Amino acid sequence: MLSKKTKYALHALTYLGKHRENKTVLIHDIAEEYGISHKFLENILLELRKAGYLGSKKGKGGGYYLIKEPKDIALSKVIRLLDGPIALLPCVSLNYYEPCAECKDESHCGINKVMAQVRDETLKILENKSLQDVLDGE
Amino acid sequence: MLSKKTKYALHALTYLGKHRENKTVLIHDIAEEYGISHKFLENILLELRKAGYLGSKKGKGGGYYLIKEPKDIALSKVIRLLDGPIALLPCVSLNYYEPCAECKDESHCGINKVMAQVRDETLKILENKSLQDVLDGE
DNA sequence: AATAAAGTCTATAAAAATTATAGGGTTTAC
DNA sequence: GTAAACCCTATAATTTTTATAGACTTTATT
């Protein structure tokens, strides 16, 4: 399962994508829309900004806004940023690989093989779906 | 990511599948093979037994053994038993469904739609792959 | 019958990860 | 100069996961 953090990040991006005509959107408004704690969301938006998805403006009249085109925001990247690995096992993770301590020989592990397949199919979707696709699905 | 519990369960089933010619296999031997804590594994095997995957024999000379054919043990079922939902969000889980508190209308949620697609592709694999496939992949 | 081996079961402890909050700092519009 | 709004780091609270403990039952063997 995705963490709430990740889920909220996706919601926040969706909200920002829907309000691109506004120069900025308040954390407060997003938090209210989804019933999320303001402070929790603040940390999430900060992370998204540091990762280059969002811009912000401080002070009165400030807020957040998307700085990437929705079509250029791959869901896989957002999930990895906030949640870490997408794969079901560390030994098949492309971005967060770690060997499994209990496994003597990964190349002869049947579990590894199945999970690699799951990873491939999952990534086939998440790498090709963008925020634009999410917006289109609303 | 799958929990260690689930991963160990899959390893244990694999081990038992490989040693079907033995009448029983000791927890101890499985734990040693994979470097897992005996007691932790004990709880896992107990759960697999209660779910009808394993039989056991108490007392001296006792141990565990598979009571299903490896081809009849779907990976999806094992994962659900030990880890819960396979889906990435509660709102797209078939077996552990829960609505997302922040979502007003699931049928118009773009995130829901993508995650349902991921679930479908994941299940296409995990429901059709069995312990036998794991054994064949070793 | 005694003993030791092996699983049973439930409870609890320890550790890690997730979720949430706090609060002072900085910037900016007005 | 004041209030609005984001910035940033730390910490607290909660939940989940991982691990351990220990007393109990069953069974083979001698």
Automatic annotation (TrEMBL), chains A, B:
Pfam families: Rrf2 (PF02082)
GO molecular function: DNA binding; DNA-binding transcription factor activity
GO cellular component: cytosol
InterPro entries, per the entry: TR_Rrf2-type_CS, Tscrpt_reg_Rrf2, WH-like_DNA-bd_sf, WH_DNA-bd_sf
UniProt superkingdom: Bacteria
Signal peptide: none
Keyword set, alphabetical order: DNA-binding
Keyword DNA-binding recorded: yes
Name of this protein: Rrf2 family transcriptional regulator
UniProt organism field: Algoriphagus lacus
